[in-house]
Amino acid sequence: MLLRIRIRLPDRPGSLGQVARTLGAAGADVVQMAVLERDNGRAMDDFTVAWPAAAGLERLIDGLEAVPGVDVVGVWPTAEPQGSPEAALIGQVAAHPERGAEILADAVPAILSADWAVLAEPKGEDSGDAVLVYASVGGQVGADLPGLMPLRPRAFTAADGTHYAVCPFSRGGGALVVARTGAPPFHRTEVSRLEQLTGAADAVLTGDRAGRSAV
Question: Rounded distance, CA 80 to CA 48, Å?
């Protein structure tokens, strides 16, 4: 199975190599790594690793925490696709524009290692409440959402502990909302990734509509 591992570590030569060697010694095969932030001599990185499904996580976590200066922020299952999932997703949106927004909502949870995503529309112009109009696997149309205002690309945590990332569409006042539990909050780099995906899909769908109306 695939795991996402988020760690803080010293931002100095050799630290990343120690982490990689520790992962390998524990039996994890590193698939990819992303740097989330670097500040004040510390870094936060996300590792995606292949891990034996029957193996417990204690050995993995204990090994990482034994590396000097390393803090394990979170370890959780992921189904994130490898390679260039964003490009493939936008290609699917372009190929099927009539369901473009739904295709985006279905694919984003895997890309961001989240549980589910929904398309939401505000109940009123000044209302923070939202109506769910489409849900990916794991989500539920008609379920309650926390207030989405201010409606801008951002991450927040609801009172029940669910972590959300939200990004509005440039058209129609709707938004893409992604959620996960049992994992760290969405990092600002993940919100930026969501914003880029939503913007690219927006551009494709807006261009498609403009092309059809000109015919």
Answer: 9
